[in-house]
Amino acid sequence: MPGVVSGYVKTTLDATDLESGVAYKLLIGLVVPRPIGWIGTRSADGGRNLAPFSFFNAVAWRPPTVLFSTELITKYKDTLRNVEATEAFTVNVVTEEVAEAMNVTSGTYPPDVDEFDVAGLTAVDADLVSAPMVAEAKANMECRMTRVVRVGEPPSAAVVFGEVLRLHVADDVLDERLRVDPVALKAVGRMAGRGYTTTRDLFFLERPD
Question: Which whole number is the average pLDDT over 16-39?
Answer without folding.
Answer: 93
